[in-house]
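Sharing a chain and its predicted structure for anyone who wants a worked example. Both blocks are below, sequence first, tokens second.
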Amino acid sequence: MAVYERTYRRYDGALTPERRRVLAFPRYAIDEVFRSKLFLALCVVFLLWPLAIACILYLPHNLGFLKLFQTDSATMSAIFGFDAKFFYNWLMKPQTAMAFVLTFVVGPALVTADLRNNGLALYFSRPLSRTEYVVGKASILVLLLSAVTWVPGLAVFGFQVYLEGTDWLRANWRAGLGIVLGMWIWILLLCLVSIALSAYVKWKPVARLSMILVFIVAAGLASVMNLQFRTDWASVINLGDMVHVIVASLFGVPPSIAVPPWAAWTSVLLTCGACVWLLARKLRPYEVVS
């Protein structure tokens, strides 16, 4: 507006508390994400899997099913196991793949537009730090991934406790611990890697290609190196396998890769540290071009 009109007035409304300002990111971004039909379809498909696992857990307690197939609950339990290993193989492993797919769809779009259009100056001219910006952007992915991973997984675990009782819980409590902590480790890793790659390349298609290189191509390279040198230590560059080693230790089940948990933790923590360093380097309100 023209200055001489003198119609400008200072905003006198209520100010959002500083601790709640980062919530503006997920509040508006989630509305935009759910407009995508592809994302909605993926969410529905991914939520059907925990529901199918819950149905399998209910079968030994369904008298009609047992009578129809002339079996009993002990035989069903012997076939499926219904222990921590069952939850690790049939719930956690598929959900980690689902979380990667959702991150591949949503993650690269979180910061690329802000960086490509030089919008960080507008963000940081407000009372908003770089840490709060990253936390706000990451919270979008955390909320979406939690809704299709550890939240339904913990519900399935609780359903099994309800069916089997406290004796089963005392014998398999580590399954519940692995579901929550394991998925949180995977979610935080996916958030940091996707945001860091997006900040570095500043272009959504290239950021998605970079995620394929980091997670899928690196996994294939690790497999080739393991076969070539007859070892499992090349898997330290395979972030998916390292997270599975950590989760297996939480579940108390033997991992499929002969890499100790400390090496897996080291690989994951070094990756997270590299992502934090990259974000600190790239997320600036201005850029000097020589």
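Comments welcome. The mean pLDDT is 86.
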